[in-house]
Amino acid sequence: MANDGLDWEGLLKWSLAHSDGTKPSRNLSEEERKWFMEAMQAQTVDVVKRMKEITLVMKTPEDVLQAQGVTPENIEDMLDELQEHVESIDMANDLHSIGGLVPLLGYLKNSHDRIRSKAAEVVTTIVQNNPKSQQLVMEANGFEPLMANFASDPDVTVRTKALGAISSLIRGNKPGIAAFRLANGYAALKDALGSEDVRFQRKALNLIQYLLRENSSDHKLITELGFPRLMIHLASSDDPAVREASLRGLLELARDAKSGGSESTFPEADEEKLRQVLEGRIAGIGEMARDDLEAAREERQLVDSLWNACYNEPSSLRAKGLLVLPGEDASQPPPDVAGKLFEPAMRALAAASSSTDEKQQKPLLLGPANNGGNSGS
């Protein structure tokens, strides 16, 4: 967004001076009120204007853009800018009304993997904790290309970004969860767990845990599909976040089996492998330096909780004094397997964006039109 001449630094200082609590509040003068409202309105109008310009570019056929010298890198930069704008929930919802949502979803099928990946990131921002935009994306058939990219795109980054978008799209969205099941989403998740990419594994494990919490009836399906064996394997991953996510999922399954009166938490072969993995983690924890032990606090608690859920006894971490270290709060409860997944990303107001940011000074990618009507931002 080009510099519109507004004194944003002055506006910020003025706002802080009137809201920092160090001075008694007072009524604004009519002149101050008018200046403030005009400044904010001008910024909002500029954001909408810029989003319309970006929408125009997204609607333009790829061959036309190429003929005008627009590169895939230009499109990526444009999508970066759009993502900044839709961090505002109002702007996210307005994208559909100005005609930008459908062409954005079209970019999920772009021939360039980086554009497919970036488009999924923008969709994630739009739908995260936003029921209205979740519904709009579902109605615009946005779930299908996301699912296709997650399940079978040749680029693992595209698959990972698509999974992130799906996770945000179906969270708190029952039609979305139903669509995920019908699209054989669990099979795609199982495939993701077998990937060698730890970011892909982490996102898959986090979504599995969410689905297990939301649908206890799916626990049996998860077990029948062989997820426990994969999660047991990943519980000894070199990546701490993958280990913890695996342990959380296994603990969810173990507690559900226990509450349901099941004599066996997992199939017999998996039970033996799980014991070996947990014993290996206990041994590994015992060899950690103090700083590493402190960083692995949640893993220590997860290992002990899972051991107790499976074998009805505390793990040896307690006897070794490794479950609660000196100085740690012994009264802290075991980790909540519900976790704090998919925590809402902070959505910045579009009006707070600084007009001096280089990323907001991009020219309109199409360049001047024949009638001179589209020139810059």
TrEMBL record:
Region of interest (Disordered), ranges: 349-377
Pfam families: Fes1
UniProt keyword annotations, A-Z: Repeat
Gene3D superfamilies per UniProt: Leucine-rich Repeat Variant (1.25.10.10)
One function term, GO molecular function aspect: adenyl-nucleotide exchange factor activity
Keyword flag Cell membrane: no
GO cellular component: a single term: endoplasmic reticulum
SMART domains, alphabetized: TOG (SM01349)
Limits of the TOG domain: 46-291
Protein name per its UniProtKB record: Hsp70-binding protein 1
Upper classification of the organism: Eukaryota, Viridiplantae, Streptophyta, Embryophyta, Tracheophyta
